[in-house]
């Protein structure tokens, strides 16, 4: 007998998904569209890496933001939401040592917290409160 997820898990996961989608969506749009000189005013590390990497990270964050919401909302391949959480957690897992290497310990907590929240979404949507796919209409 399948266990139905608790309402608290669903509410918590949707709240974190919405928050992360907003944050990653804004960051992704900025990193994928703004001129590097303008972006460097608020994100100083972008001048230390190749521009294609900055754009790739931006597009990845934007795709992750969409992946946190759309599959679950439409119930079309909703497991992709959990995989979006895995992808975003991976980006943040890579960001933490990058900032440590640069001596930016003051900003290191932000990617660490975002990574943990993304991992929370992945775990929650894989194990605790998965969303059932939409049933095909006859």
What's a quick, concise take on this entry?
This protein is an all-alpha fold.
Q: What does this entry look like structurally?
A:
This protein is an all-alpha fold and 138 residues long. It has one domain. It is built from five helices and no strands. The protein has helices at residues 7-33, 36-39, 51-74, 79-101, 109-128. Helix 1 (7-33) packs antiparallel against helix 3, helix 1 (7-33) crosses helix 5 (109-128) and helix 3 runs antiparallel to helix 4. The mean pLDDT is 94.
SSE blueprint and pairings:
Elements (H helix, E strand, L loop, with lengths): L6 H27 L2 H4 L11 H24 L4 H23 L7 H20 L10
Structure characteristics:
5 helices; 71% helix; mainly alpha
Strand content: under 5%
Report the total helices.
5
Strand and helix order: HHHHH
Q: Mind telling me the C-alpha Rg?
A: 17 Å
Which structural class do you get from the secondary structure elements?
mainly alpha
Overall geometry comes to elongated
User: Total number of β-strand segments?
Assistant: 0
Task: Let me know the largest β-sheet.
Answer: none
Uncertain spans, ≥5 residues at pLDDT below 50? Answer: none
Mean pLDDT: 94
Specify the helix fraction band. Answer: over 70%
Distance between the termini: 26 Å
Number of self-contained structural domains:
1
């Amino acid at each position: 007998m399948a266990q139905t997820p608790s309402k608290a898990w669903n509410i918590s996961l949707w709240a974190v998904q919405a928050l992360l989608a907003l944050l990653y969506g804004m960051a992704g749009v900025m990193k994928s569209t703004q001129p590097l000189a303008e972006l460097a005013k608020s994100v100083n590390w972008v001048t230390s890496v190749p521009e294609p990497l900055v754009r790739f990270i931006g597009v990845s964050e934007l795709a992750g933001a969409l992946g946190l919401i759309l599959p679950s909302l439409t119930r079309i391949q909703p497991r992709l939401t959990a995989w979006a959480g895995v992808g975003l957690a991976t980006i943040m897992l890579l960001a933490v040592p990058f900032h440590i290497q640069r001596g930016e310990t003051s900003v290191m907590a932000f990617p660490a917290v975002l990574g943990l929240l993304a991992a929370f979404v992945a775990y929650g949507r894989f194990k605790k409160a998965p969303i059932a796919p939409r049933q095909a209409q006859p």
